[in-house]
Write a structure and sequence with these properties.
Keywords: Cytoplasm, Repeat, RNA-binding. The chain is mainly alpha-helical. The protein has helices at residues 153-158, 163-166, 172-181, 190-198, 204-210, 226-230, 233-243, 248-258, 262-266, 271-281, 284-291, 298-302, 307-317, 320-327, 334-338, 343-353, 360-363, 370-375, 380-390, 393-405, 407-411, 416-426, 429-439, 443-447, 452-462, 465-476, 485-490, 495-505, 508-518, 522-525, 529-549; strands at 7-9, 20-22, 25-27, 33-35, 45-46, 111-114, 127-128, 131-132, 146-149. A hairpin with a 2-residue loop joins strand 7 (127-128) and strand 8.
Length: 568
């Protein structure tokens, strides 16, 4: 290498792969730029990756040594990219944005920031005789030295990017301010800025509360924030808890803020609970004022997942005259509500809380053939049971007549059987006997049915002594068939429960008759899983009532199969 040469290429095979190398350059005491030979100045330093070195051939300024052609006038370069050196802002070119939806990231623009690793990177320094060192630094940097940075560090952190560790060492304040104050963000990114500044649109007060930074927060601290807290999962729970022991001033604060947007809160997933809690603990006059907010929206709320809960709570908390005024809006829509998964609960609550003299518009909707249809409906059967519990005899009779006329159909239905069971539990003795008389002669068959067997059990439990004796005698009747009705019932998955219920409830004469009929089948019952239930019941019964059983004997104990009292 000559003393004046500053750039040289090493021959291939020396491990450097033909990289262009730069000899050390320095300024002397007079300000002259000198390029020295390689003697005593350490090893050669690689400046750029392989490729042609772009050297400006312009004449250097007077009194400047530029024999190597390394330093060029400050003019745009046509190599890697063409920055605009008028301002530092223009040195940040717009590029294809990997943060756009097509590229799978976040924002509308990305800026390429070059590292400033030496003092020569400063545009205001390293100027010698009209030459600028690094004025066009983008033209001499390898692509590996270009860093890509999202708009705002916090946005990157929200994405799980460790921006603080990966960003280049540049002054962040002017860059951040430029982005936030310029039009680069675009109108479409206002939501992004709001998310960064306000935490997904929440107020700072709510954010602090959710972060457990306000351990002593009280209801009075939520002035102008009650609605926002009510719509937040944690804020709603906080208000509910505070309302249980709130002062009159605190209750009034809550009321004054939720009153103007009550309907919106009634249909909110979290807000509806605040409304419900206020109906429980609010001042009476405020509760009535709040209840008036549902007027004109009763049907809509009754069919709404959250609104139906508010209507039910309101009916429990307001005076009778206001109850009637509100539910009148459901007149003409009862069948629609009854068949709805939400509305049926509102109709049930009306029947439970309102004086039945005001409920003719509900009971009238169940008259006629529609009664059986609704009795076999998953929600309609519930409403009919509430009618049978709370309405007057005059209101019930037309409905009950329709049910009794179709008893056999209803007992085999998966929902209708509940209505017949309810009549057996709560009906008059005459109504119960009528149902049992309709089922007589079919006890064995119905006992083996999944749904009808439940009705037969209720017949055994709630019938009179005479009707119960008739049922047991029908089951124990001797048949010409080798397999009696009782035997078929004992080994059936549903009917065995009917037999167990008979053993539990039967009076002594009927119980002894049952045991006499069961005894011949003991060996066979051991073979069936459901028959073993009967044997277990008999064994337990013997230990409690052995004197009553007398000579009949008992079932063998599972612990001792040679028990002297065992049935042989």
């Amino acid at each position: 290498m000559s003393d004046t040469a500053s750039v040289m290429s090493l021959p291939p095979g020396n491990g450097q792969h033909g990289y262009q190398l730069l000899t050390p350059a320095y300024y002397d005491q007079s300000g002259q730029l000198l390029v020295s030979g390689g003697r005593g100045l350490g090893p050669l330093v690689r400046l750029v990756s392989p490729g042609p070195l772009m050297v400006n051939t312009a004449t250097p300024a007077p009194n400047q040594t530029n024999s190597s052609g390394l330093f060029t006038p400050a003019q745009p370069s046509s190599t890697v990219f063409n920055p605009r050196p008028q301002t530092w802002f223009n040195s940040i070119p717009n590029t294809t944005d990997p943060f756009q939806p097509n590229n799978g990231l976040l924002s509308d623009n990305r800026h390429e920031i070059t590292t400033t690793t030496t003092a020569a990177a400063d545009d205001k320094s390293a100027v010698a005789g009209g030459y600028q060192l690094g004025a066009n630094r983008g033209a001499s940097l390898d692509q590996q030295n270009v860093y890509h940075m999202p708009y705002i560090q916090s946005v990157g952190n929200n994405l799980g990017l460790n921006v603080s560790d990966a960003k280049p060492k540049v002054t962040s304040t002017p860059f951040s301010n430029m982005l936030l104050n310029s039009n680069l963000m675009g109108s479409g990114n206002q939501t992004l800025l709001k998310s960064v500044e306000g935490g997904s649109g929440r107020s700072q007060l709510l954010e602090d509360f959710r972060a457990n930074r306000l351990p002593s927060l009280q209801l009075m601290d939520l002035t102008n924030y009650i609605v926002e807290f009510s719509k937040d999962q944690h804020g709603s729970r906080f208000i509910q808890q505070k309302l249980e022991h709130a002062t009159e001033a605190e209750k009034f604060l809550v009321f004054s803020e939720i009153n103007n947007c009550a309907y919106n809160l009634m249909t909110d997933v979290f807000g509806n609970y605040v409304i419900q809690k206020f109906f429980e603990h609010g001042a009476p006059d405020n509760r009535q004022t709040l209840a008036l907010k549902v007027k004109g929206h009763v049907l809509t709320l009754a069919l709404h997942m959250y609104g139906c809960r508010v209507i039910q709570k309101a009916l429990e908390s307001i005076p009778p005259d206001m109850q009637v005024e509100i539910v009148k809006e459901l007149d003409g829509h009862i069948e629609k509500c009854v068949k709805d998964q939400n509305g049926n609960h509102v109709v049930q609550k009306c029947i439970e809380t309102i004086n039945p003299v005001h409920l003719d518009f509900i009971t009238d909707a169940f008259k006629g053939p529609v009664t059986i249809h609704l009795a076999m409906h998953p929600y309609g059967c519930r409403v009919i049971q509430r009618i049978l519990e709370h309405c007057t005899t005059e209101q019930i009779k037309p409905i009950l007549d329709e049910l009794l006329n179709e008893t056999e159909i209803l007992v085999h239905d998966q929902y209708g059987n509940y209505v017949i069971q309810h009549v057996l539990e709560r009906g008059t003795a005459e109504e119960k006997s009528k149902i049992i008389n309709l089922l007589k002669g079919k006890i064995s068959t119905m006992s083996t049915h999944k749904f009808a067997s439940n009705v037969v059990e209720k017949c055994v439990t709630h019938s009179s002594s005479e009707d119960r004796a008739a049922i047991i005698e029908e089951v124990c009747a001797i048949s010409d068939s080798p397999q009696t009705a009782l035997y078929l019932m004992m080994k059936d998955q549903y009917a065995n429960y009917v037999v167990q219920k008979m053993i539990d409830i039967a009076e002594p004469p009927q119980r002894k008759l049952l045991l006499q009929r069961i005894r011949p089948h003991v060996p066979l019952l051991k073979r069936y899983s459901y028959g073993k239930h009967i044997l277990s019941k008999l064994e337990k019964f013997y230990h409690k009532c052995s004197a009553e059983i007398g000579p009949i004997g008992v079932v063998p104990s599972s612990a001792n199969t040679h028990n002297s009292h065992s049935i042989k």
